[in-house]
Design goal:
- The chain is mostly helical and 191 residues long.
- It has one domain (9-184): Fumarate Reductase Cytochrome B subunit, CATH 1.20.950.
- Helix content is 60%, strand content 3%.
- It has four helices and two strands; from the N terminus they run αααββα.
- It has helices at 15-37, 46-73, 85-115, 139-171; strands at 120-122, 126-128.
- The chain has a two-stranded antiparallel sheet with strand order 1-2.
- α1 (15-37) packs antiparallel against α2 and α1 packs across α4 (139-171).
- The longest helix is centred in the last third of the chain and has 33 residues, at 139-171.
- 18% of the residues are buried.
Length: 191
Amino acid sequence: MRSITPVARDARYGATAIFFHWITAALILINWLLPQLTELVARENAPQVIALHRSIGVTVLALVLLRAVWRLVSPPPPLPGGTAQLVRISAKLGHAALYLLMLAVPVFGILFTWAGGHTLSVWGVAEFVPPAWVDPALRSTFRDLHEISANALLWLVGFHAAAALVHQYFFKDRLLDRMLPARFRGRTAAS
């Protein structure tokens, strides 16, 4: 096995990138769980759960767009020295797929909402009326695309987390520390 140099202090993400990462991850997980919750709540409360799901989805879309801009302004730190080329390519493809799915899931959700003839209310503050070009005949297609891309995103997030843990505990390169808030860095150190 190749020797990988542990992550240097200057090769960590900044506070803004860390904030975007963890708040987006938390909202995606919550939003994936909310539709499952509609089956457990009283039927008359389901619309409120779905409204919350939609608001969080639009929030995730906005955060991902801001995050993408931030990534251009403040590029990610380099991977540890000695990281294999295949791992570097996999990381780039994985991150690209994560961004694509984080954008696709809410866009398909918005189109699904509009194709159903519903106005999209975001936190009760802004409302977006379905544009005339949204075809109601595509409602089930948008629903399926929303669900499939959401499940694909959840799987990819799982692989992403597993890869970070493999780096941290198998390769012992402390890669996970790059994305942890300062107070948690070092607590995951592989001994």
